[in-house]
Write a structure and sequence with these properties.
Layout lengths: L1 E5 L4 H12 L3 E6 L13 E5 L15 E4 L6 H6 L1 H21 L4 E5 L24 H14 L6 E7 L1 E3 L10 H12 L1 E5 L4 E6 H14 L5 E5 L2 E4 H9 L5 E5 L12 H4 L9 H13 L11 H7 L12
Parallel strand pairs: 1-2, 1-4, 2-3, 4-5, 5-6, 6-10, 7-9, 8-12
Antiparallel strand pairs: 9-11
Helix pairs in contact: 1-6, 3-4, 5-7, 5-9
The structure holds nicotinamide-adenine-dinucleotide (NAD).
Nicotinamide-adenine-dinucleotide (NAD) binds next to helix 1, strand 2, helix 3 and strand 7.
């Protein structure tokens, strides 16, 4: 299949690109490369350094499916520049789907977020529950979903609401809970847990990639919104799991982030998707990568630290690599 992947140089996108190429797809990655580009060259891969806000420059001819991952991707980065987040996450998403429709693209998949639900008391958070987004990031995801779904009579729209992703990627993120706690233990011998009681869902990065591949395979049999998260555990439990592999002191401090929720992904499971990895796999592969020197605890692995160093946040770069 001929696939356009936005955000293909990111944490998930890097692994997803590799998997798509492995399945024989032709992939065009569009990414502004805020965090660099670690994609190896491949005959079926075109990588374009390009801001999605400059939508008319995005090549769409011949594209069969758009996988749209390029967003300002967490709460602190969205707070850093709320206008940028609304432009990138919502406005550019709308312009991208309109361009896809104009070019006859059949399928548009959007990386939303499980955080759109906010704080929930329900033991099972299913797709039909009301959304109570707390942060700008959560709000942009909710609004973007709704804008995209309003085009569902013209193109197949699939919105994924992933849990927090964990595990190793060549473009590593250490601002995600499992990854962060594992590296704290390895680097400092100490894990600092904020709050600790909040329950959060998790998904292994290879399962996250698997969900996108599954959506491409199932195509017309799936539409609408899908939760994607399989291990609902507290932050403190994640820290304890890390210490099963790396000895470390756990320090609990107060948290100002009340989000606590349990994702129910039965709707996705009913389509035949099965997760194959878990939090423990992620912890073990991070330990291996750290000890082998493939993973370093550096600023580039924290989105907010990198975004603070970028001047005009890469507006409209068009260099082709
Ligand atoms: N990682 C998670 O735990 C998680 C959980 C839920 C949802 N998501 C969503 O999945 C997607 C990918 O997340 P990730 O963890 O890989 O994040 P990431 O920050 O590593 O990747 C995002 C990529 O998009 C690119 N990008 C951002 N704005 C762009 C723009 N305007 N034009 C072109 N490229 C742009 C960045 O350069 C980066 O390479 C995001 O939409 C994120 O919100 C991630």
């Amino acid at each position: 299949m001929n696939i356009l992947l936005t955000g293909g140089c990111g944490y998930i996108g890097t692994m997803l690109t590799e998997a798509l190429l492995g399945q024989g797809h032709k992939v065009t990655v569009v990414d502004v490369m805020w965090f660099g580009n670690r994609l190896p060259a491949h005959a079926n891969l075109t990588v374009i350094r390009q801001d999605t806000r400059d939508v008319e420059r995005i090549p769409m001819a011949g594209v069969e499916a758009v996988l749209h991952l390029a967003n300002v991707a967490n709460d602190p980065c969205s707070e850093l520049d709320a206008k940028l987040s609304w432009e990138v996450n919502v406005l550019a998403s709308m312009q991208l789907v309109e361009r896809a429709i104009r070019h006859g693209v059949r399928q548009f998949v959007y990386a939303s977020s499980g955080s759109v639900y906010g704080v929930k008391d329900e033991p099972q958070v299913t797709e039909d529950l009301p959304l109570v987004p707390i942060s700008d990031y959560n709000k942009t995801k909710m609004v973007s979903e709704r804008v995209l779904l309003s085009y569902r009579d013209k193109i197949l729209i699939q919105c994924v609401r992933p849990a927090t992703v964990c595990g190793y990627s060549p473009r590593m993120r250490l601002d995600l809970s499992v990854n962060m706690l594992a590296v704290q233990a390895l680097a400092n011998g100490r894990i600092t847990v904020f709050g600790g009681d909040q329950t959060r869902p998790n998904i292994h990065i290879r399962d996250m990639v698997g969900v996108y591949l599954h959506l491409l395979e199932q195509r017309e049999r799936m539409s609408g919104v899908y939760n994607a998260g399989f291990e609902n555990i507290s932050i403190l439990d994640i820290a304890r799991r890390v210490t099963e592999y790396v000895p470390a002191e756990i320090v609990v401090t107060p948290s100002n982030d009340p989000r606590s929720y349990r994702l129910n992904s039965d709707k996705l499971l009913a389509t035949g998707f099965r997760p194959r990895y878990g939090v423990n796999d992620a912890i073990q592969e991070i330990i291996a990568a750290f000890r082998e020197g493939r993973l370093k605890n550096e600023d580039g692995c924290y989105n907010i630290k990198t975004m603070k160093t970028i001047g005009n946040l890469g507006w409209a770069c068009a260099a082709k690599t």
